[in-house]
Design brief:
The chain is of the alpha/beta class. Helix content is 26%, strand content 35%. It contains 3 helices and 7 strands; from the N terminus they run βαββββαββα. It has a 4-stranded mixed beta sheet with strand order 3-2-5-4. The chain has a 3-stranded mixed beta sheet with strand order 1-6-7. β4 and β5 form a beta hairpin. The longest helix has 14 residues. It is globular, with a radius of gyration of 14 Å.
Length: 125
């Protein structure tokens, strides 16, 4: 079995992302672990957020990279994250702010076969 993606996006999230990229150019996402904006996925212009060795790249949505902090990843590594969109205001510094829509992360637990495939994929890196 091929390893499933760790992150994906709904059609609504991809539509909002395309609008943001059209306005701002390439972006990155960082899944927040709490604090000021709860656990919202934050969307930043590429280069505005320094990615460090404590960040884990989950994959890409719409060609844009998605990261999560290593400690947060340790808690969520058994789940697939799905970026979605709901009505509301985005995080204070996130590019979805002011668009009357905001990104939201939904999740589902990987099944046993998916976890084995993910373990095999991680081991081959």
């Amino acid at each position: 079995m091929e390893a499933p993606p760790r992150v994906g996006a709904t059609a609504a999230a991809l539509t909002l992302l395309a609008e943001i990229v059209a306005d701002h150019g390439p972006v990155i996402f960082h899944q927040s672990g709490g604090c000021c904006d709860g656990s919202s996925p934050m969307c930043y212009p590429e280069g505005d957020l320094l990615i460090g060795d404590q960040d884990v790249r989950l994959g890409e949505v719409g060609g844009m990279p998605v990261y999560i902090g290593r400690q947060q990843f340790a808690l969520w590594e058994h789940t697939q994250l799905m970026l979605d969109v709901v009505p509301g205001r985005g995080g204070m510094f996130s590019l979805d702010n002011g668009r009357e829509q905001r990104f939201l992360t939904r999740s589902r637990t990987f099944d046993a076969q998916e976890l084995v495939a993910l373990g095999d994929a991680d081991a081959s890196r």
